[in-house]
Design brief:
Layout: H1 2-64, E1 69-74, E2 79-82, H2 84-90, H3 101-105, H4 108-120, E3 122-129, E4 137-146, E5 152-161, H5 163-198, H6 205-236, E6 245-248, H7 249-259, H8 261-266, E7 270-274, E8 280-283, H9 285-302, E9 308-316, E10 320-327, H10 334-337, H11 349-354, H12 361-371, E11 376-380, E12 386-393
Parallel strand pairs: 7-9
Antiparallel strand pairs: 1-2, 1-5, 3-4, 4-5, 6-8, 9-10, 10-12, 11-12
Helix pairs in contact: 5-6, 6-12, 7-9, 9-12
Bound molecules: adenosine-5'-diphosphate.
Length: 395
C-alpha cells in the first residue's frame, strides 16, 4: 500500500509543482504585460502632453505673429494669454497671466466689456483710447468662449490699432479746415471790393482801377493756392513720378536766378551763383527747378532789402551732393525752424500774405527732395540770415 501512497503523493506533488510553475509563469507574463501596458500608457500620456505643448507653442507663435493684439481670459476673467502685439500696445513689461483685467490693464472700459459678454456673447467695434501720453487708439472685438451646453468658460478679445487711422483723420480734418480758411480770406476780400464797386465806386475810374487791381491780386493768390494744393496732393499721393537724369546743377541754378532776377531787383537784392561747374545730381530737372525757385524766392521775399542771396553746392559723403540757398535776412526763430516745412505754417502770417505766399512752398520743397531720396533742413540764427540745405544723389 505504502508505495502507492508515496507514488500518488509524488504525482500530486509533481502536479502541484507544475501548477505552481505554470501559475508563476502566468503571473510573470501578466506582470510583463502590465508593465508593457503601463509603459505604453506612460508613453501615450507623454506623447499627449508633448502634443498639447506643441499645439500651445504653435498657437502662441500664431498669436505672436499677428499685428492685432490678442487677449484670452478664463471663466473668472483672469488673463490666460497675451500676445506680443498686445504687450507692445499696452507697454506691458511683466507677465500678467493670472491677473484680472483691471490689475493687468487698468482700463475700466475693458472690464466693462468683459462684464457685458455673458449676456451679449459678442461685442464688436468698441473704440478705446489707451492711457498714456502718446494717445493710442484701439478697436476691440470681444467674443465669449462657450461649451456645448452654452456655458461661458472664457473670452477672446482682439485689439486693432486705430492710432494711425485716427491721426490721418485728424490731419485730413486739419487740412480741410486750413484750406477752407486759406480760400475764404481772399474770397471775402474779393467780395468786399466787388460790392464796393457795385455800390458806386465804379463811377470813380481811378478808385475803380485800384480796386480791380486788388481783386486781380487776390484772384492770383487763389490761383497760386490751388496750383500749390494740387502739387502737394499729387506729390503726397505719389502721382508725380520723378524723371531722373544727371543734371548740371550750376546750369539749373543759373536758370532759376535768371527767372527771379526782376523780383530781386525790386528789392535791390544781389543774386549770386556759387554752385561749382561740373557738379551733377541725379534729378528731375523740372522738379529741381521748382525746389530751387521756391527757396530763392523765399530768400528774396523774407531776406532783407539791399541784401544778397547765394546759391552754392558741393559733393558730400555717400555719393551725395549738397545744395544750399543762403540769405542775409532776419533769420527764422528757433521754435519755427522745425515747423517751416509744415503745410500752411508761416512765421509771420501777414508778411507771407502780403508777399503772395501760399504757405505751401516749403512743404512742396520737402516732398520733391524726399522723392529724390534726399533730405532738406534749415540753419538759421536770428539776425544772422538763413540757409536752406538739401541733399540729392550724385549724377
Ligand atoms: P510761404 O508761401 O508763406 O512763403 P513757405 O512754405 O515757402 O510758405 O514758407 C513757410 C514760412 O517759412 C514762411 O511764411 C516764412 O515765415 C518762413 N521762411 C521761409 N523761408 C524763409 C527765409 N529765407 N527767411 C526767413 N523766413 C523764411
Amino acid at each position: 500500500m505504502m508505495p502507492y501512497i508515496i507514488t500518488a503523493m509524488a504525482i500530486a506533488l509533481a502536479g502541484a509543482v507544475v501548477l505552481h510553475w505554470r501559475w508563476r509563469q502566468r503571473c510573470e507574463l501578466l506582470e510583463r504585460e502590465l508593465a508593457r501596458e503601463r509603459q505604453a500608457l506612460g508613453e501615450s500620456r507623454q506623447q499627449r502632453e508633448e502634443d498639447i505643448a506643441q499645439k500651445q507653442a504653435e498657437q502662441q507663435t500664431l498669436f505672436n505673429s499677428m499685428a492685432e493684439g490678442v487677449l484670452v481670459l478664463d471663466e473668472a476673467g483672469r488673463v490666460q494669454l497675451v500676445n506680443r502685439s498686445l504687450q507692445k500696445f499696452f507697454g506691458l513689461k511683466a507677465d500678467v497671466r493670472g491677473q484680472t483685467i483691471m490689475e493687468a490693464f487698468r482700463l475700466q472700459e475693458l472690464a466693462e466689456l468683459w462684464r457685458r459678454l455673458p449676456e451679449e456673447r459678442i461685442v464688436e467695434g468698441r473704440e478705446l483710447e489707451l492711457p498714456g501720453v502718446n494717445g493710442r487708439w484701439m478697436e476691440v472685438n470681444a467674443a465669449a468662449v462657450v461649451d456645448r451646453a452654452g456655458t461661458q468658460y472664457g473670452a477672446i478679445l482682439v485689439f486693432h490699432d486705430l492710432t494711425r487711422l485716427k491721426q490721418l483723420e485728424n490731419t485730413r480734418q486739419e487740412f480741410v479746415a486750413n484750406v477752407s480758411h486759406e480760400l475764404r480770406t481772399p474770397l471775402s476780400l474779393i467780395k468786399g471790393f466787388v460790392e464796393t464797386l457795385l455800390d458806386g465806386a465804379k463811377s470813380d475810374p481811378e478808385l475803380a482801377t485800384r480796386f480791380l487791381r486788388t481783386i486781380e491780386k487776390h484772384t492770383d493768390r487763389l490761383t497760386y493756392l490751388i496750383e500749390d494744393l494740387l502739387t502737394v496732393s499729387r506729390l503726397e499721393s505719389g502721382q508725380i513720378v520723378m524723371n531722373l537724369h544727371p543734371v548740371e546743377l550750376r546750369e539749373e541754378a543759373a536758370q532759376v536766378l535768371d527767372d527771379l532776377q526782376s523780383r530781386a531787383a525790386e528789392k535791390n537784392v544781389t543774386l549770386e551763383n556759387s554752385v561749382p561747374a561740373g557738379l551733377q545730381a541725379n534729378a528731375d530737372a523740372d522738379r529741381l527747378q521748382q525746389v530751387l525757385f521756391n527757396l530763392v524766392e523765399n530768400a528774396i521775399k523774407y531776406g532783407r532789402a539791399d541784401g544778397r542771396v547765394t546759391m552754392g553746392g558741393k559733393s558730400v559723403a555717400d555719393g551725395k551732393v549738397e545744395l544750399w540757398v543762403h540769405d542775409d535776412g532776419p533769420g527764422i526763430p528757433v521754435e519755427a525752424k522745425e515747423r517751416v516745412f509744415e503745410r500752411f505754417y508761416r512765421v509771420d502770417r501777414a508778411r507771407s500774405r502780403e508777399t503772395g505766399g501760399t504757405g505751401l512752398g516749403l512743404a512742396i520743397v520737402k516732398h520733391i527732395v524726399q522723392a529724390h531720396g534726399g533730405e532738406v533742413w534749415v540753419k538759421s540764427d536770428l539776425g544772422q540770415g538763413t540757409t536752406f540745405f538739401c541733399t540729392l544723389l550724385q549724377g
